[in-house]
Every structure is written in structure tokens, then in C-alpha cells.
Amino acid sequence: MDNRQAVGSWLSGPRAALEEAGAEFGYRGEQLGLPEQGPGSIARPGRRLGALVVDWGLCVLIAYGLITKGYTPATSNWALLVFLVLGVLTVGTVGFTPGKRLFGLRVVGVETGRVQPLRALARTVLLCLAIPALVWDRDGRGLHDRLARTVEVRM
User: How many CB atoms lie within 10 A of CB 2?
Assistant: First the structure.
């Protein structure tokens, strides 16, 4: 192996190096028994981020307009509380928030296909902490989804 190959494998990351060595990873969601594409497949990061932006914007508007009646330093805290309540109530009952519905996404339980209210609470609390949502597994699920045993799929 010359220096270019060594640097190339380092730049492409460990997954690419393992794939070159013959390791088979499969597609995202294969381990969970989900289809590769179409309805029921793992939601892509762009859609998930778009849904999160819509939901957060809605919560900020509610906090700004109905709770603090204008911008104050507490507006962001109220928006986070509204986000928590919105996530628990909507994901725990219908499986999606307004932003997820707009982007064609749904949260389902890995074993049952339905999200129990306590799992929705755990998932949303972890999502509010932000860090668990930034740690992903090979299927593209955040740590908050793994711990709550849920997955975000396309409708």
C-alpha cells in the first residue's frame, strides 16, 4: 500500500476501509426489517431536520404569541417546554408531530409498530437534551430513538 492509498482510506473513513476489505453493511434499516426505499423505510436526515425546524418554529410562535406575549429571555425556555408537550402528546397518540406530518414522517415502535406514551416521553426528553439526537447508529437512528426503541420512518 503506497502513501496515497493509506491517506485515501484515512480520509474516506473506517466504513469505506471496511467495505474495501469485504465487509457487508447492507442498507439502512435492514437490521430492523424495514424496506430499503419507499413507505416504511428509514427517514432521511434532511426530512427529519426539516420536520424538527417546523416543529421548533411552531413552538417558538406559541411561546412568543401566547405565553410571553413578545420576546423575553424566557421565550426560549417556554418554547422548549411547549416542544416537550407537543412531542409527548402527538408522538404518543398519533405517531407524528405537525412537522413530521408535513414532511411525511412517522415515529413507530421497533417491536409493536406503535409508540407507547412512556416511550414517547423518554424519546422527547432525550430529544430536548439535543446530544442524544446527534449520536447516530449505522441505520441513521439517533440515540434518543435507540433508547426509546423507536424508529422514524417515511409514510
Answer: 7
